[in-house]
Amino acid sequence: MVGNIAEVIIPTTDTPGARAVGAHLFTLVMVDDCMSKDDQAKYLKGMRSFDNVMKSVTDKSFSDASPEERLQMLTTFEASLDQFDDETKVFYNRTRAYVLQGYTSSQYFLTKIKPYQLVPGPGYKGCVPVIGDQKILS
Fold first, then answer.
1. Diameter of the chain measured on Cα atoms
2. What is the distance between the alpha carbons of residues 106 and 109, in angstroms, rounded to a whole number?
3. What pLDDT score does 3 carry?
4. What digits encode the pLDDT tens for the residues 17-55?
5. Contact (CB, 8 A) for 45 and 38
6. Does residue 119 sit within a domain?
7. CA-based nearest residue to 53, from 77, 69, 75
8. Is residue 42 a contact partner of residue 90, using CB atoms and an 8 Å limit?
9. Domain membership of residue 78 as a residue range
């Protein structure tokens, strides 16, 4: 289910989507390694209830829907997010945040879309003569 949500959030087009770069797996690792046991329990309860919430909102299971229907389902869900229980909101919000974080920190994104450059960058000059009568404050 997390992979399906990731594919809706950042779909594969002429560039790899979130699922193709493994953002859904990153999400699961973050939940497992970085969330407290109580937050993990809320997340898992929300994951279990998410499909039922989708059925109540759209009369169709998220897992059984086509990609176009999934996009419409999530759009409808986000528009009425405040109507649902806390666990479902925690599941969706955390999943969305971790998918975006996983995608933007993926090797593909950091090499092809926004190449990472070490600080201070290629134009840095560490030794520059000081010009003028400047006093050093002590």
1. 76
2. 5
3. 95
4. 999 999 999 999 999 999 999 999 999 999 999 988 888
5. no
6. no
7. 77
8. yes
9. 2-113
The tens digit of pLDDT for each residue in 49-103 reads 998 888 887 888 898 899 999 999 999 889 888 888 899 999 999 999 999 999 9
Q: Could you tell me the pLDDT band of residue 132, with boundaries at 50, 70 and 90? A: low
- The answer to the question of residue 72 being in a domain is yes
H-only helix segments in 19-116: 23-34, 37-58, 67-79, 86-104, 107-108
Cis peptide upstream of residue 120 (ω within 30 degrees of 0): yes
| Residue at 137 is within a domain | no
C-alpha R_g of the chain: 22
Q: How many angstroms separate the CA atoms of 30 and 26, rounded?
A: 6
Q: Are 39 and 90 in contact (CB under 8 A)?
A: yes
Q: Which two tokens stand for residue 7?
A: 């594919």
Cβ pair 97, 34 in contact under 8 A = no
Name the residue type at position 49. S
pLDDT at 135: 58
- For residue 122, pLDDT over 80 is answered with no
What is the tally of structural domains in the chain? 1
Is 84 inside a domain boundary? Answer: yes
Q: Which residues neighbour 89 within 8 Å (Cβ) at sequence distance 6 or greater?
A: 46, 81
